[in-house]
Amino acid sequence: MQRGDIAPDFTLPDDSGEPRTLSSFLASGPVVLFFYPAAMTGGCTAESCHFRDLAEEFAEVGGNRIGISPDAVAAQRRFSATHGFDYPLLSDVDGLVAKQFGAWRRFSPLHAKRRTFVIDTDRVVLAVIKSELKFTVHADEALTVLRERAAKYA
What we know:
It is a single chain. Strands 5-4-3-6-7 form a five-stranded mixed beta sheet. It is globular. It is built from six helices and seven strands; from the N terminus they run ββαβααβαβαββα. It is an alpha/beta fold. The N and C termini lie far apart (28 Å). The longest helix is centred in the last third of the chain and has 17 residues.
């Protein structure tokens, strides 16, 4: 998946077990879909908390934040409750969605790559952010893209 591609629609359970679709999130604005390797690990916690801490900034540009990992629903629920996330965490246990987005490693105990996709309401990918070790760059760069988008429509 690259900038300019059309993101595939998908359905996955969220941290409460409810099925959620990409298209339903896009109905209320652009989506920042961030894949992370594993809930409750140091880097993933830092990244996810940074997305949480920027809630107001994302709201200003209409961005919907969505985390996704191969963790089971129960693990996602614990992760969200522990850190007070105000956005959904989706469970992609089999990695089907991660594979569609090119965010899956075949040979690693941590299958999901740390990737963030900024997706416009027409499902066009506006940006792909790749950084395995710079945990705050994902939210920061996604905000920059959404601010540029907002300025374009202002």
